[in-house]
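Note to self: keep these together.
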Amino acid sequence: MSTRIILSTFACIFSLAITLPANQAGVQTIAGKWLGNADTPNGPVDLAFEIQQDGNQLKGSATVFETSTPISALRFEDGKFSGEITVMGGNYRLVATVSEGKMTGTWEQVGGDYKGTWTAERATVAPAAGIAGTWDIVAEMPDGRATYLLELNQQGDALSGSIGGDMGSAPLDALSYKDGKLHFEVDAGSGVYVIDGALEGEGLKGRWAVSGGGDSGAWSGKRKGSAASAQPSIAGTWDGSADTPDGTMAFQMLIQQNGDALTGRIPMPDGAVTMNKVSFSGGKLGFEVDYMGGTYRFEATLDGNSMKGKWSSVDGSDSGQFSAQKKNP
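Structure:
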């Protein structure tokens, strides 16, 4: 197994469980969200992790390639962080100093010669997007589901809006939004509908009811243009299998995305194979790899957290089917 693969993977995703001293010293300097990177033989690898306090312990998670591995022998005391991580059969020691919202430290292979540095900074939490915007609404009605378009506008503390459907649109009355709770009423002519809901991440959930009693039901909404309605993410770790002339071949793809740029690699026993010409558009993935003297083209269609497609040698001599499942989606 290539040491380069092990080292470059060490930053993938790690879960933290740090036992504090009895006085819980340093909790305020370690708890929270952190963003950083680790220097590896294959270049810097981005890290994003969050640490939370739970009684006398700090627990958290960090994300790269959407895989995870625990850290053992963890300590955080007097501004010093330390622990060990095991990845693909290799053990690595992590140490860092935490000061003024920054982690600065080193990693080294236990019983080996490989070592490097890693850093992280406390993330700045962006303000909530608020309630303003366009929302795709689905309501459970007595005769089935109905879809609507909810428009919410905000200027300072003033709110206004409208809701539209197949029968036209209507203004929102008694509109209010406070502490994540939304309320409004709609005069539909045949009756007044009272709608209450709550903002939960990128979505809205709530109940509607006819004023004065009668029908009621649940409704939900997604912000138009939000991540929930955008193209699914291809970045992450994918466990795949390909049909080859020699039988089924298992493999793993590690795909990274930085803006519109996509890169990836396939770990192999004799070293990582680089994924070339990686593209992803309209739910379709394409890339090429050079392996054992040949060039192979892979094309697949994404369906949620799985993909199916075909591979073929560029010279047309071989081809087959392949599929992959996203790991820990």
